[in-house]
Specification:
- The protein is of the alpha+beta class.
- It has one domain: Factor Xa Inhibitor, CATH 4.10.410.60.
- The protein is 39% helix and 13% strand.
- The chain has a three-stranded antiparallel β-sheet with strand order 1-2-3.
- Strand 1 (19-20) and strand 2 form a beta hairpin.
- The radius of gyration is 16 Å and the shape is elongated.
Length: 69
């Protein structure tokens, strides 16, 4: 087995931020709900609380960080 494959490790920072679905899509949380929430509408905050998919241009980079997922 090549050394590059034998020593692969999961990037734990990525593992905490992303989840891979059964169909292979990568889910992430939306940004913008950490602070300054009083100036945002309830509808906006409710939508920010839901998960969304990672853009297709970023998928390969995220999957590289999660080799065993």
């Amino acid at each position: 087995m090549p050394k590059s494959i034998a020593r692969r490790k999961t990037k734990k920072s990525a593992a905490k931020r992303f989840k891979i679905t059964g169909t292979g899509k990568i889910m992430r949380r939306k940004a913008g709900l950490r602070h300054l929430a009083s100036s945002k509408s309830s509808k906006r905050k409710r939508k920010l609380g839901k998960s969304t998919t990672v853009h297709e241009t970023m998928e390969a980079r995220v999957k590289e960080c999660l080799p065993f997922a």
